Amino acid sequence: TETTENRPFEADVSRLLHMMVHSVYSDRDVFLRELVSNAADACEKLRYEAIASPALLGDDPRLAITIAADPEANTLAIADNGIGMSRDEMIEALGTIARSGTRGFMDRIAEVEGQDGAKRGAQLIGQFGVGFYSAFMVASKVEVVSRRAGASEAWVWASDGKGEYSVAPVALEEAPVRGTRVLLHLTDDAKSYAERWTLERIVKEQSGHVPVPITLVEKPGAEAASLSDGAALWTKSKSDISAQDYTDFYRSVAGQYDEPALTVHFRAEGRFEYTALAFIPGARPFDLFDADRKGRIKLYVKRVFITDDAELLPRYLRFVRGVVDSADLPLNVSREMIQDSPLLGAIKKGVTNRVISELAKLAEQDGEAFGKVWENFGAVIKEGLYEDFERREQLLGLARFKTTASGEGTRSLKDYVAVLRENQTAIYYIAGDDAARIASSPHLEGFRARGIEVLLLADPVDAFWVASGLDHEGKPFKSVTQGAADLGLIPLLDSDTPPPAEASAEVTALIAAIKETLAEDVADVRASDRLTDSAVCLIAAESGPDRQFERMLAAAGR
Ligand code: ADP
Ligand code: MG
């Protein structure tokens, strides 16, 4: 049809747009990063599709992004000659919210609102895949003209962001030969986004490392000036890359605004050759505890983006961001085939080993920096203790714990075994949800009185790995809330305290009375050298789940 069609936004989009305009305000620069990143994604998609269908590139094989400002008209256009969108794709992509993460986004925004909400909210946009709509933070009207690669029709999408958008066919002369042009009619308070200096600054800061060249046209008719050459940072040699380059690249690949806590950049040579550039974020990504536990490492083949869906790292390293580029896969490999290729296995192994060994190095050389990494990601890394048996020892070596002896800091198992008491046969722990509460548990009395250190485990994942039967340097992990304490052979620190009066007649009589009263409610009642001040505590049977694990199972209804 030749008529303009008006359609309402999906309800969630309307809500989101309202929030964008009214609360996610202070850090509006991000809109440009989002639109440039969409343009770059579109170019990368075409680059990939053109492997199988080279004709899609026509006589315009050089993929590029052009930012064109018009200070007089107060407009800004971001154009790419990438894959483009058909009418249906436009309606799907620019009228709905495709990714499931968006609910999470809205909840998060609501959560951070009020505090330093505006700024943090803006920073969440890129992580949640709702970038396009951020255009409405600076524009009163947005027009998107797009022609899909290979198509003989073009479409224009337009909206003022207030509940509705329109789609209409557009004459081919008015559309780009291929790809998409997003035209923003800037609001009065966003005029500076049509100025060269502002645009240069923001693009260099936020998009200097997108793998597609970016040029700027300062005003209509002016010559295009290059802002960024689109070279792939990871292919350069380390000595040519500054710390700032790495940070900028990290930010664009991770969609985060923090500093990377650790950068791992290496070339693997030998049977399989590939380059990896991986970062450990300085802050937790918001999808860290999502149920799908997916990673987001991007896989490239000879600089062509293939997928960010290949499992390039184990789940317990899902917070690592970055790229892997290999020349060893055929370019026309299907995304499905990749998952089964031996190269992928080699990459996974190689990158995992490297990330873990770099973490170990950091732990040795800069305890404070490593402490922050562990604070952010330790709870996730510990999943590896029961999922990656081969690397258990290494992962245990990285683990840091709050213990009865750690004070404000943390302790490693190496620290722990260095101060074992004589005759101590186990590494003791207590698990629970609340670090402060478990630290004051009566179960610890007898251990404290003997100077035996106890690990205080307060992450939900802890109940699982301690139950998986691992040990360290021949010492099993043992819950202080389970089974016999066996502390009789370890002397009290304060030798004046009398030994436990297990054998006395009064105790025997008391135990008998308690047993009779509680009858079926308990399996056993016994004197214990676990306690020094408290009268009684509950413990779990020697085998089976400990008290914390019992509670978790009960909470899960089992
Ligand atoms: P995301 O990029 O995370 O998917 P966005 O809100 O930024 O989320 O974009 C939504 C979708 O709109 C993209 O996934 C893409 O399908 C489409 N899109 C946006 N900009 C372009 C563009 N320049 N070229 C082609 N498709 C685009
Ligand atoms: Mg996007």
From TrEMBL:
- Primary location: cytoplasm
- Cell location: Cytoplasm
Region annotation (B) ranges? 336-551
Q: Which GO terms describe its molecular function?
A: ATP binding; ATP hydrolysis activity; ATP-dependent protein folding chaperone; unfolded protein binding
Q: Which UniProt keywords apply?
A: ATP-binding, Chaperone, Cytoplasm, Nucleotide-binding, Stress response
Region A, as annotated, extends over 1-335
Pfam families attached here?
HATPase_c_3, HSP90
Q: Where does ATP bind?
A: 34, 38, 80, 85, 100-101, 127-132, 180, 335
The record, for PROSITE patterns, names: HSP90
Q: Which GO terms describe its cellular component?
A: cytoplasm
This protein's source sits in the domain of life called Bacteria
Q: What does this protein do?
A: Molecular chaperone. Has ATPase activity.
Q: How does it assemble?
A: Homodimer.
> NCBIfam families recorded for this chain?
PRK05218.1
Query: What HAMAP family does its record include?
Result: HSP90
Q: In which family does this protein belong, per the annotation? A: Belongs to the heat shock protein 90 family.
Instruction: Output this protein's name.
Output: Chaperone protein HtpG
**Organism expressing this protein natively:** Ancylobacter tetraedralis
Tell me the classification of the organism that encodes this protein. Answer: Bacteria, Pseudomonadati, Pseudomonadota, Alphaproteobacteria, Hyphomicrobiales
Q: Which gene encodes it?
A: htpG
